[in-house]
Inverse folding.
């Protein structure tokens, strides 16, 4: 069995083939796959043959797979507790027509790193397509390692030692959800370095995105201007590419060295059934097994509980 790697950009992204990942893998093959992922940051796997259980099992070669957040009053379509429902479908498999949920999901179309709003960061995310719009419903990816390496030295010096705060609710506000600054101030935040060393490759990477709200120690206007400047820098054409999907295709991305965003499609017309597993940062300290649900449950009146914020209330506040 020979694993084939076809680079997408010179320093970032690769299509991988030549190995059947739908069944058990030997230790050497697992090690090679992890090494390939560490080098390229994003890997694309076509026609994987994975079902839900196989998706979760394959994800475990990268480390601890998180439990997806669940709401006691909202049934899930997912057959495995580790699967995040990244679709535009409700529990019955119909296209979502709830405006609050659609507004919240709009944040996924901003450049971001999954779960940077958590103290315990995510490393790999594995997104498997079960159903796609006619044009493939793409995901766009950006290379935050090469972007950092190409920064002028003056900017690298400026960023040295800086930390930023990250908030789920801030990115939802940026996508159009009607939170006020005061409401977001009362919600949970996380704090992370703006530049960190990506352990899998030893390369430095920027760690900012749509969840990044403020630079610690800077005036808000100055800090947010810097955050936007860095996101714009990372998402220049030379650092980005899209992945278009057919059922069975999977993209794996490393949240610690990339940004991503959902591509545009008519989510009121086309079904897009995407399911994701999330692997914990291997450097993270132990935490509650279900810390995602705990974070959302601690934040009352969130899109995670759309029954608490009706469409009329949203429009009244907009």
């Amino acid at each position: 069995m020979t694993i084939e790697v076809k680079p997408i950009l010179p320093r970032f992204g690769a299509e991988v083939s030549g190995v059947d990942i739908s069944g058990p893998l030997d230790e050497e093959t697992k090690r090679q796959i992890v090494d390939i992922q560490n080098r390229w940051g994003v890997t694309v796997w076509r026609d994987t043959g994975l079902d839900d259980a196989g998706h979760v099992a394959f994800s475990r070669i990268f480390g601890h797979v998180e439990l997806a957040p669940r709401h006691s009053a909202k049934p899930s379509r997912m057959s495995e507790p580790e699967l995040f429902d990244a679709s535009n479908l409700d529990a019955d498999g119909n296209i979502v027509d709830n405006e609050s949920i659609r507004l919240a999901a709009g944040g996924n179309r901003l450049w971001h790193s999954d779960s940077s709003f958590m103290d315990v960061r995510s490393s790999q995310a594995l997104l498997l397509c079960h159903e796609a719009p006619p044009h493939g419903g793409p995901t766009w990816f950006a290379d935050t390692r090469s972007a950092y390496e190409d920064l002028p030295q003056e900017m690298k010096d400026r960023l040295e030692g800086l930390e930023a705060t990250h908030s789920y609710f801030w990115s939802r506000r940026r996508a159009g959800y009607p939170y006020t600054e005061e409401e977001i101030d009362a919600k949970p935040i996380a704090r992370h370095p703006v530049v960190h060393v990506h352990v899998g490759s030893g390369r430095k990477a920027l760690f900012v995105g749509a969840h990044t709200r403020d630079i610690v120690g800077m005036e808000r206007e100055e800090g947010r201007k810097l955050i936007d400047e860095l996101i714009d820098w990372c998402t220049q054409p030379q650092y980005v590419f899209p992945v278009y999907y057919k059922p069975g295709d999977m993209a794996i991305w490393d949240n610690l060295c990339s940004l991503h965003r959902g591509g545009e499609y008519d989510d009121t017309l086309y079904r897009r059934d995407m399911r994701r597993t999330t692997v914990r940062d291997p450097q993270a300290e132990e935490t509650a097994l279900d810390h995602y649900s705990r974070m959302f449950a601690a934040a009352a009146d969130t899109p995670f509980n759309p029954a608490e914020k009706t469409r009329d209330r949203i429009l009244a506040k907009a």
